[in-house]
Write a structure and sequence with these properties.
By secondary structure, this protein is an alpha/beta fold. It has a domain at about 25-155 and about 200-250: Decaprenyl diphosphate synthase-like (Undecaprenyl pyrophosphate synthetase, 3-Layer(aba) Sandwich). The protein contains nine helices and six strands, in the order ααβααβαβαβααββα. A six-stranded parallel sheet has the order 3-4-2-1-5-6, with helices on both faces. Strand 3, helix 6 and strand 4 (about 145-155) form a beta-alpha-beta unit. Helix 3 packs across helix 4. It is globular. The chain binds 3-methylbut-3-enyl trihydrogen diphosphate (IPE) (2 copies) and magnesium ion.
Length: about 260
């Protein structure tokens, strides 16, 4: 009884170890809204770009940790369709960092058997970035350990509209009959088509909103919010998020199995 009670405690005061996490199933797909780079920089009197640079470092650590834990899918929100509203100087810095990240990391990612896939509308990104991304996607296509989706110029609503347009075109072309359209078929037209829905969505920096991320896919995701600013996010935060996830009950609208109580 006591053991069962303990198992259901969501918070632990001491740090969680990866070994503890292996006692329960891992989330198959973790998605992260990496927020708070600007605030991190501001706190230190640094330009916002410095926050984004430190944010890229944090991402490096999390990608490695997910691979080590055996999590098969990771999606990270790197640039939203709404982020174009930011000053040009910040956008340029972000694009520059993206290029730098791919150039610097590709070999390591490949060595760690990470497969890279960009989701979002790449057409509006600088040509150099698009070429590098496409090259990285090609070079890592056979990697099987971790599937890393990078949401770039991504917006959940735009992704849904694009899927509807493609589906409508296929109906018009006679490839799909309208009565065949159901959830699974529709989901296959999204940019995340073929990837399991996120089990766990993490957002840092204290905001509790989706900001247009994975709107269709998050229908039954578990959410984990934390005050930590993204550049300060370490693998221990990831372990805690996974631990909490593992101690929640997912019901999907059904009832809890009495035996699992
Ligand atoms: C997240 O950090 C990175 C991007 C949105 C590209 P922010 O830049 O949003 O940081 P805050 O929210 O201003 O602190
Ligand atoms: C969401 O963060 C987008 C990314 C992390 C890339 P924002 O900082 O853009 O979100 P809002 O503006 O606070 O909703
Ligand atoms: Mg923000």
């Amino acid at each position: 009884m006591l053991r069962l009670f303990r198992q259901r405690q969501p918070e632990k005061s001491k740090a969680i170890t990866p070994t503890e996490l292996t006692q329960y199933p891992m989330p198959r797909h973790v998605a992260i809204i990496m927020d708070g780079n600007g605030r991190w920089a501001k706190k230190r009197g640094l330009p916002r770009a410095a926050g984004h640079r430190s944010g890229a470092e944090a991402l490096r650590g999390v990608v490695k940790a997910c691979g080590d834990l055996g999590i098969p899918y990771l999606t990270v929100y790197a640039f939203s369709t709404e982020n174009w509203k930011r000053p040009q100087e910040e956008i340029d810095a972000l694009m520059g960092l993206l290029i730098e990240y791919i150039e610097k990391e590709l070999d390591v990612l490949n060595k760690n058997e990470v497969r890279i896939k960009a989701i979002g509308n790449l057409n509006q990104l600088p040509e150099k970035a698009v070429k590098l991304i496409e090259n990285a996607e090609r070079k890592t296509a056979a990697n099987k350990r971790l599937y890393l989706q990078i949401a770039l110029n991504y917006g959940g609503r735009k992704d849904i509209i694009r899927a509807v347009q493609q589906l409508a075109a296929d109906v018009l072309a006679g490839k799909v009959r309208s009565e065949q359209i159901e959830e699974q078929l529709f989901a296959s037209y999204l940019s995340t088509g073929g990837i399991p829905e996120p089990d766990l969505i993490i957002r840092t920096a204290g905001e509790k909103r989706l900001s247009n991320f994975l709107l269709w896919e998050c229908a039954y995701s578990e959410f984990w919010f934390h005050e930590v600013l993204w550049p300060d996010f370490h693998k221990e935060h990831l372990f805690q998020a996974i631990y909490d996830f593992q101690h929640r009950q997912r019901r999907f609208g059904g009832l809890v199995n009495e035996e699992n109580k």
